[in-house]
Predict the 3D structure of the following.
Amino acid sequence: MSAGTAICAVILAAGEGRRLRPLTEHLPKALCPVGNVALLDRAAARVAALGISGPADLAVNACYLAEQVVAHVGDRAHLSVEPGDPFGTAGGVALLKDWIGGRGVLVGNADAYLAPSDETEISDISELIAGWDGTTVRMLGVPGPPKEFGSHRFAGFSLLPWDLVARLEPVPSDLVRTTWRPAEREGRLELVEYRGTYLDTGTPRDYLAANLHAVHQRSLIARDAVVTGAVDRAVVGSGAVVAGRVVRGVVWPGAEVRAGEVLRDAIRVGRELTVAAD
């Protein structure tokens, strides 16, 4: 980042998470736990490692189940609660233009699971802002299909210059059409390859995969969980009770797997809801 190029960050947490239903009927996707940490908190920690935190420099938008997001964030970030239905990635940023106030903005999807190949890295997305002159759109990408941009696909974070943010309208719209593709046509799009693991947690299958990756294909049991059964490559949340068996599964905080039950390749919410990850 060049001297004098101020940057703030926006974490997008307003979406409905339709592909993740029925899990997202209970929690907004941004608050779904991965490795017993809310996806939103993972995104905030990644941005904080760049020195961007607090309500003056970090904003979070909310819409679907907004009251849960607002309560979770508290005073850790500036909150933008969207009226009615979600405004989309571009509309959500546009609603924050007064707060952004002429700065470049690092925009991250709360539901993007990123894990660096080198876990000692202070910030695994630091290359997005390193040496940035404030004029180009930078996009984090990973190689492979669907090859949305050249030979890469989008990996959850982009960096936008103020002049393009200033053009955004506060109406339902997305960054692909309003900003990324126009910047690509104008030769203003720079792709920054992410060298770690990226997963879009939008489906139960990928959500389970992210959980298991986060715990290195082992098991993680919250300290106050009660496990009298067996767990094998499982994530067990705070206050959960496991009297049965869990194999490659996620047991949400406060959920229960009763004696005689086998939860396999699935997510358990409460006492009854089982969401298969297939």
User: Anything to note?
Assistant: The longest strand covers residues 152-160. The longest helix spans residues 175-185. Residues 215-273 form one domain. Helices lie at 39-48, 66-73, 88-94, 97-100, 162-165, 175-185, 204-214.
